[in-house]
Amino acid sequence: MPPADESVFGTVSPPPGVEQFNIATGAGVEGIGILVFISVLIRLATVVAGLYVLFNFFTAGFEYITAGDGKANQKVKDKLTSSVLGLVIIVASYVIIGVAGTVFFGRGDYFIRPTICGPTQIDEGTGSCIARP
Amino acid sequence: MPEQHLLAADLPGLAGCDPSKLELNLNDCYRLGESQKVGDVYDTPATLVNILVRNAFVISGILIFILIFYAGWLFITNESKGKEEAKGVMEAAVVGFIMMFAAYWIVQIIKVVTGADILL
User: Fold this and answer.
1) Residue B110 and residue B57 share a domain
2) Bridge partners of B31?
3) Which domain holds residue B36?
4) Residue B120 domain-assigned?
5) Which residues of chain A approach chain B closer than 8 Å at the C-beta?
6) What is the rounded distance in angstroms from the CA atom of residue A56 to the CA atom of residue A53?
7) A108-120 b/e with 16+ CB inside 10 Å = b?
8) Directed axis angle between helix A72-105 and helix B79-114, to 10°?
9) For each of chain A's 133 residues, which pLDDT tens digit applies?
10) Based on the domain organization, do B49 and B106 belong to the same domain?
């Protein structure tokens, strides 16, 4: 029988890739790094989206140049507007979710800097979460 | 080899948990950590519900953020068809979130209107 103060299953240490995100939270290896990971993914997606819009602009310009007749006009226009609109939505999503946090929860960074709260971290008096991950 | 009779009450942190007693309090027997009783943290089922709801809001907010982001992507990548899709995604995200936010109030209204014994 194992000693009572030691778990039967032992402890699972984070895999090497996960560890660096855990440390990036500022809470050491114990931190929950998935939020940092999602941030990195979103940042990457923003950059890729910007590049894609640039590419769309190039192809639209190319289409406009090469098309002899006036038919390309509408197509190019659609392409450009939807590209710009899409990029605006992507960039504005930060603002939108910030506004949603302010409107619904009274805190602009409610979703931008989210907290994962356990039962032991709740302040009895105010009902708010004490620890930030 | 002598048979070992290990009573739960012999383990540290499990004081008060004696299965041989007639009045067994499961709060004393279930443990969260090595020495923390479940009953000390979750004194009522509502504690668990509160925790789940609190974190569900945060997670749903992040999901909505990603969905709006995805709607933007749809706009960029497939022009005319993407607009319809993006609109659907945005609509679903916003309506879903508002429903989630209003769920408590809806049940509260049902409680007031019907007088049902709901603990809110």
Assistant:
1) yes
2) B37
3) 1-43
4) no
5) 1, 4-5, 7, 35, 38, 42, 45, 49, 52-53, 56, 78-79, 82-83, 85-91, 93-94, 96-97, 100-101, 104-105, 110-111, 114-120, 122, 129
6) 5
7) bebbeebbbbeee
8) 30
9) 445 556 677 777 878 888 888 888 777 777 778 888 888 999 999 999 999 999 999 999 898 888 877 777 888 888 888 889 889 999 999 898 899 889 888 888 888 887 777 777 766 666 666 654 4
10) yes
pTM value surpassing 0.95: no
Q: Across the interface, which of A42, A52, A117 has its CB nearest the CB of B69?
A: A42
Residues B37 and B70 in one domain: no
Residues B63 and B110 in one domain: yes
The answer to whether residue B58 is domain-embedded is yes
Do you know the residue count of chain A? Answer: 133
Same domain, B68 and B26: no
Helix (H, G, I), strand (E, B) or coil at B31: strand
Same domain, B65 and B98: yes
ipTM: 0.72
Contacts of B75 in chain A (CB under 8 A): 82-83, 85-86, 89
